[in-house]
Amino acid sequence: MSKHIYLETLGCEKNRVDSEIMLAALKKQDYRLTDQAESAHVIVLNTCAFLTAATEESIDRILDLSDYKTTGQCEKLVVTGCLSQRYQDELLSTIPELDGLLGSSNFDQIPFLISQIYDNPDHPQILINKKPHYTQYEKQEKIQSTPRHFAYLKIAEGCSNMCSFCNIPYLRGRFSSRSISSIVEELQTLIHQGVREINLLSQDTSSYGKDLSEEVDIAALLSAISKIDGNHWIRLFYAYPNTFSEQALEIMANDSRFCRYLDMPFQHINDAVLEKMNRKITKKEIYAKIAQIKKQIPDMALRTTFIVGFPTETEENFEELAAFVAEGHFDHIGVFTYSHENNIPSKKWGDPVPNALKQERKAQLLEIQQNISLQKNKTHIGKTLKVLVDGVSQESDLLLQGRTEYQGANIDGLVYINEGHALPMEFNLVEITEAHPYDLVGRALQQ
Ligand code: SF4
Question: What is the pLDDT of residues 347-380, one digit of tens each?
Fold first, then answer.
């Protein structure tokens, strides 16, 4: 009788793609997939270890799931992803319930690892590459885990930028791009399956192709994507600011299927802090980049990320950042408090900013942004916007919910439809009637 497998994913959407690869590899080997942990013979947890908080969440979840070895059908417990890559020895020495570890690559090898585990029940089986590599992304065999109408597509993995506060290069290895042909093929398959929105992911989307050849870069990829027929949206995430080119923006400007949306993490604005972060960009260059984007695509919704409480951040540095946010360049911001990790270059500066002050600075930036988001949302009142409708809202079954091209899935606000009929999982025209700090309200127009 084939084994029932329960797979759970923690962390970012890039982890979700890795889990989709594992689901497809397991199904191909006739394992039965279940969404009930208690009835699974094998439990696989795909983890995150980017920050201490994520590491703790992953360990807590492993311990929860290990209980099913006594209360459920669970025979084998497997941990995959960044926590295994970062803490292999610590996990094996502290969690005896573990039967196997798979690192942050070779996700398509999960069936092989499970068969090794059953063949060698006396000691845990390990499949961890110290130098992660990403050939499995070329093969693109995945089971989509998102609703039919939107999907995530990884165009590259790893990172070589070496920002001083970040351990991704150690967890995910050096930057490694997929081929344009493999990305285009996967996109065509998704569009053919009725996917309406494809979210392009990597650790650093701007550097796409730099490890392949001179001719291949993000502009070449977007140009190839722009030649694909279909009524769909393409949304870009993690566009490292320094290297996101004018040509790439030009291609986006000439094809309205590229969402007027760009996620571009700046992390800070003060030159001294940016230098210590090893962000390789200056305040002046950040302003120039934003001006270039707004010149080429005036209605581009910008999402960015900031870190507060970096070891060398002074009160003046933070005030400078708060003033920058207050200028209203962004539609959406994410704010992280600096996390003092034992495997990052910036650890040499200690962690002098008290956590309470970090939280205070984070709250201050989000408060400033809340008013800016409201003002930007108000500019949509009276407009008719194209909305990708998810379906009945989680808020109330009297409402439908969806997103405009200015709103990314699972991170930005929503459009609530309180009047008219709209087709779920499809694009619909919606007249915006109300604006709130993060969300919009509107009525569906006759299609
Ligand atoms: S670009 Fe992003 S993933 Fe790469 S090192 Fe910097 S913060 Fe980390």
Answer: 999 999 999 999 999 999 999 999 999 999 999 9
Specify the amino acid at residue 402.
G
The Cα 365–Cα 348 span in angstroms is 27
Q: Are 301 and 352 in contact (CB under 8 A)?
A: no
Say yes or no: 423 and 309 in one domain. no
Phi, psi dihedrals of residue 187, rounded to the nearest 5°: -60, -45
CATH number of the domain at 409, please.
Answer: 2.40.50.140
* Binding site membership of 168 for ligand 1 (Cβ less than 6 Å): yes
Type of residue at 13:
E
> 117 and 233 in one domain?
no
> Looking at the structure, do residues 272 and 402 belong to the same domain, yes or no?
no
Residue 407 contacts residue 350 (beta carbons within 8 Å): no
CATH number at residue 92: 3.40.50.12160
Q: Is the CB of 77 under 6 A from ligand 1?
A: no
Structure tokens at 303: 């999402």
Give the domain CATH number at 311: 3.80.30.20
Return the ligand 1 atom nearest residue 238 CA: 2
Q: pLDDT digit string (tens) for 160-185?
A: 999 999 999 999 999 999 999 999 99
Give me the number of domains the chain comprises. 3
Instruction: Give CA–CA dist 393/415, Å, rounded.
Output: 10
Angle at 366 between CA 365 and CA 367, to 5 degrees: 90
Say yes or no: CB of residue 243 within 6 Å of ligand 1: no
What's the pTM? 0.95
Residue range of the domain that includes 422: 384-444
Distance 169 CA to ligand 1 centre (A): 7
266 touches 286 (CB < 8 A): yes
Q: Are residues 175 and 198 in the same domain?
A: yes
Q: Give the E-state strand segments of 382-426 in sequence order.
A: 384-392, 400-403, 415-419
Residue 268 tokens, joined: 């800070």
**358, 378, 398: which is the final residue of a domain?**
378
Ligand 1 centroid to residue 246 C-alpha, Å: 21
Rounded distance between C-alpha atoms, residue 4 and residue 65, angstroms: 15
List alpha helices for 177-334, DSSP H: 180-192, 218-226, 246-253, 271-276, 283-296, 315-326
On whether both 100 and 159 belong to a single domain, the answer is no
Out of 107, 127, 147, pick the residue that ends a domain.
127
